[in-house]
Design goal:
With about 160 residues, this protein is mainly alpha-helical. It has helices at about 5-40, 50-65, 65-75, 80-105, 110-115, 120-140, 145-165.
Length: about 160
């Protein structure tokens, strides 16, 4: 198929290409670090159209779906699953407040995921389990609208919390 000289030429060509590629990636990595530093210096505005949309949509869903009345007084809500969801959501929000209030505001740690690497996966797992529990608990009330309603509520809460930190 290939003789020795062709293989050597091909190997040298790949070696040159790899060296050229490594040189361009290291120079772009330095440029990437500069742009990241510039991003850290000039933060994006906290209030934007996207945040306002999700907060208003969450408020509208709360009002039109009679969310609080259904949770408090509807007998179709599976209370065991709902209580498990509340506990898991409490864990998730406690970890988020620990990161935002204590680590960022009081300790001044901006990249707390590097200082405490276990917090993001634990918070994510708690939130996914809470959302599954809430979907199971509220499915008898709103049926296939339940995930849409809960997603809208979630996005409204996340956008509201993003205004804090």
């Amino acid at each position: 198929m290939f003789n020795d000289s062709e293989l050597a030429t091909l190997r040298n060509r790949f070696k040159r290409d790899a060296e050229l590629l490594m040189q361009t990636t290291t120079s772009s990595a330095v440029d990437g670090e500069k742009s990241q530093d510039e991003k850290d210096l000039k933060p994006l505005p906290r209030i934007n159209r996207h945040s306002v949309f999700w907060i208003v949509a969450s408020a509208a869903v709360t009002y039109y779906a009679d969310f609080l009345h259904v949770i408090m007084e509807n007998d179709d809500v599976k209370s065991w699953w709902f209580n498990i969801g509340l506990i898991l959501l409490g864990i998730c929000l406690s970890l988020a407040m620990f990161c935002i209030v204590y680590l960022e505001w009081f300790k001044g740690i901006q990249h707390y995921d590097q200082e405490y690497p276990a917090i993001p996966p634990v918070t994510t797992a708690a939130f996914i389990a809470a959302s599954c529990s809430f979907n199971i608990a509220l499915w008898p009330v709103w049926s296939f609208f339940t995930p849409l309603i809960l997603f809208t509520q979630f996005m409204g809460v996340v956008m509201f919390i993003s205004l804090l930190g």
